[in-house]
């Protein structure tokens, strides 16, 4: 062709340079920027002077969809692709062609040793969720990345640079529900690899090294399900789960021919990818005789340079351990939520019981007064007796609420559980009826447990009644007690050690999982309206916890239920529990009683009882008012005070007045029915109470001398 006059003249050098930068032609925005970039300002110099290894590496990373940055030369000059650019924020594009220290300065003390180690040892550095402190958006932040740093050989065989394939995992690490980003996303891997194998031996070696050294699992299939490519990590995974390794050219259909179910699952996924669909899937694969693992797999279409679809490839990752850890975390969180719910319900029911006791105290006291004085005729006395019976039932209900809230009064002493259970056999048989076959099994030599025998008897009776109701057509009820050792992994969360375990097992209808989940919640009941309070199991649960033990329940529909009450063993010698003598209401030695309670109705009924017992009663509504009465000259012989009141508590009042009046007799009354905050040497009485119970407490107080 003859050049015409006026045509532009291209020098031979310019034409050659234009050809030499052709490797940047398919590099997207970064490729275009590199072609127009002023390389005279970069330590690398113009691209046509770069080594073939550098050109090949840059061509590969520009075409890749993965986030890739190359740090080349001793100054670690940065070259990266479109996918990587957003990850460095405002540092792009000034980082292009510049030494890394200029734009990664805030993390250079962290990054530089990693890069130097890879250059020096030629060993790949890989890490998952590695933290890096970066300043990419005008402020500092800690980001997390999956990284793979590999040494890239230069033309002379020395290390030319470090190729960094990265994937940011910051959002998942900070708590959002995301799966790990795939370590590497290679598009057109096989087509590029096959083409360049024929064209450039050096490039083939470079790409093969990158693929083989990554931790990600990479494989590609052609439309006939034959392997076009597979790296060592992926072949290792097949070896682990199937006991054999595929190689390039093998057929997936032949490889899994002896496992048709596995083949069907695998080909169903590959068929979608071979049909042109790009997707991510999490699936479990493997022969149980070897191993079963869960993989996160990203499938993409494999295309030739002209865009023709020639197969599909995937990048995968074994996520079995991560999913198991997530499942364990979810289970622990659910257990924590359940514990918090039960604690909140316990606080609520404890508060309700306290207020209810304050309401019951004047009711019980006045009904008792009406009965003792014989007020009204026969009909009126019958109505009063009925009301008193209802009040006692309400009192029992409150005790069960307090048991669930772990605020019931307990007299924990060494108890012979074997004897206690054996002695209850006849009572349980009469309670459950003739349709229930009751068996009691208690071995000799069972160690004593620390417990309140009255509460344990009530608990066993409650569990037996529940078992009876679960066997409407009859069945078998087995009550046993054994000494058992708790290991650290025990499902009850008990501290390791030896316990006495009381078991109540029935052959009834059992409970499904949903019912079992709510079984110990207060007021939850599967019985009909009016047939139960829903407090039986919750009371036993609270009792066990208050004694330092636990309650465990195993049940399934149609297979019966077993409830186990675990009690800590006693290291003291079992003794005899002194029975509290029944006190006949009679006047006590006369004197002045200072009555302190912030509830007017409680004061009214208690004052009436004290007057009947021969005391002159002085009433106050607070501890502060009571102290003022004493300061003004009042010298009481007896102090009867509520424990929990606004301001100073009754216990604090009693201790203060004892210092002023040493001979003062003190009786602390509590609506919570527990000893928390009450000094052990102060006598206590639980609301609600009748006149005879108040008289008994005062008689014992007088006998003890205060």
From TrEMBL:
Q: What is its EC number?
A: 2.7.13.3
**Pfam families noted in UniProt:** HATPase_c, HisKA, PAS_4, Response_reg
Keywords, comma-separated and alphabetical: Phosphoprotein
Keyword set includes Phosphoprotein? yes
Coiled-coil ranges from the UniProt annotation: none
* TM region positions: none
- The modified positions for 4-aspartylphosphate read 642
InterPro entries (alphabetical): CheY-like_superfamily, HATPase_C_sf, HATPase_dom, His_kinase_dom, HisK_dim/P_dom, HisK_dim/P_sf, PAS-like_dom_sf, PAS_4
**Catalytic activity annotated for this protein?**
ATP + protein L-histidine = ADP + protein N-phospho-L-histidine
Query: Domain Response regulatory: where?
Result: 592-702
Instruction: Quote the PANTHER family the UniProt record gives.
Output: SENSOR HISTIDINE KINASE, TWO-COMPONENT SENSOR PPRA
Name of the protein this chain belongs to: histidine kinase
């Amino acid at each position: 062709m003859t050049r015409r006059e006026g045509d532009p003249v291209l020098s031979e050098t310019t034409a050659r340079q234009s050809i030499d930068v052709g490797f940047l032609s398919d590099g997207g925005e970064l490729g275009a920027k590199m072609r127009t970039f002023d390389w005279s300002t970069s330590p690398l110099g113009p691209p046509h002077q770069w080594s073939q290894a550098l050109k090949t590496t840059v061509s590969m990373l520009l075409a890749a969809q993965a986030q890739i940055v190359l740090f080349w030369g001793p100054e670690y000059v940065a070259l990266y692709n479109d996918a990587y650019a957003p990850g460095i924020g405002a540092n792009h594009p000034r980082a292009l062609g510049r030494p890394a220290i200029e734009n990664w300065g805030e993390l250079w003390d962290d990054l530089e040793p990693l890069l130097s180690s890879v250059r020096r040892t030629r060993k790949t550095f890989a890490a998952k969720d590695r933290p890096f402190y970066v300043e990419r958006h005008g402020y500092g932040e800690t980001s997390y990345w999956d990284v793979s740093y590999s040494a890239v050989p230069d033309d002379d065989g020395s290390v030319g640079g470090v190729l960094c394939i990265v994937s940011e995992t910051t959002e998942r690490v900070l708590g959002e529900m995301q799966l790990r980003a795939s370590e590497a996303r290679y598009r057109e891997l096989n087509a590029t690899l096959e083409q360049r194998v024929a064209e450039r031996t050096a490039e083939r070696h470079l790409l093969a090294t990158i693929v083989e050294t990554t931790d990600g699992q990479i494989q590609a299939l052609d439309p006939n399900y034959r392997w076009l490519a597979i790296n060592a990590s992926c072949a290792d995974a097949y070896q682990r789960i199937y006991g054999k390794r595929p190689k390039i050219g093998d057929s997936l259909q032949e490889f899994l021919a002896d496992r048709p179910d596995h083949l069907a699952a695998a080909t169903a996924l590959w068929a979608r990818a071979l049909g042109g669909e790009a997707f991510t899937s999490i699936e479990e694969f493997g022969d149980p005789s070897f191993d079963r693992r869960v993989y996160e797999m990203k499938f993409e279409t494999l295309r030739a340079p002209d865009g023709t679809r020639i197969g599909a490839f995937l990048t995968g990752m074994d996520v079995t351990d991560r999913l198991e850890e997530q499942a364990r975390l979810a289970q622990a969180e659910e257990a924590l939520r359940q514990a918090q719910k039960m604690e909140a319900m316990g606080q609520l029911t404890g508060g309700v019981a306290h207020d209810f006791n304050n309401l019951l105290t004047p009711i019980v006291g006045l009904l008792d007064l009406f009965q003792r004085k014989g007020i009204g005729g026969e009909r009126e006395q019958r109505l009063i007796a009925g009301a008193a019976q209802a009040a006692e039932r309400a009192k029992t209900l409150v005790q069960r609420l307090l048991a669930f809230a772990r605020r019931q009064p307990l007299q924990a002493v060494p108890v012979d559980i074997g004897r206690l259970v054996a002695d209850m056999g006849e009572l349980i048989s009469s309670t459950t009826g003739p349709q229930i076959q009751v068996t009691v099994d208690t071995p000799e030599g069972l160690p004593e447990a620390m417990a309140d025998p009255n509460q344990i008897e009530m608990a066993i009776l409650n569990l037996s009644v529940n078992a009876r109701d679960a066997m409407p057509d009859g069945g078998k009820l087995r009550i046993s007690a054994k000494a058992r050792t708790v290991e650290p992994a025990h499902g009850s969360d008990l501290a390791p050690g030896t316990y006495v375990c009381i078991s109540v097992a029935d052959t009834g209808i059992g409970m499904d999982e949903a019912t079992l989940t709510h079984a110990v919640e207060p007021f939850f009941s599967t019985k009909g309206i009016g047939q139960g309070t829903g407090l039986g199991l919750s009371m036993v649960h609270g009792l066990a916890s208050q004694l330092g033990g636990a309650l465990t329940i195993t049940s399934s529909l149609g297979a019966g239920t077993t409830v186990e009450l675990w009690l800590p063993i006693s290291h003291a010698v079992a003794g005899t529990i002194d029975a509290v003598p029944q006190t006949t209401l009679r006047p006590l030695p006369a004197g002045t009683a200072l009555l302190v309670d912030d509830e007017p109705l409680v004061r009214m009924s208690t004052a009436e009882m004290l007057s009947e017992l021969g005391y002159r009663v002085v009433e106050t509504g607070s501890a502060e008012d009571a102290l003022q009465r004493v300061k003004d000259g009042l010298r009481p012989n007896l102090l009867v005070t509520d424990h929990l009141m606004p301001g100073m508590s009754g216990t604090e009042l009693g201790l203060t007045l004892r210092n002023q009046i040493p001979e003062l007799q003190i009786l602390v009354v509590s609506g919570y029915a527990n000893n928390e905050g009450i000094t052990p040497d102060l006598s206590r009485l639980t609301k609600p109470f009748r006149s005879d119970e108040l008289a008994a407490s005062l008689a014992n107080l007088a006998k003890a001398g205060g």
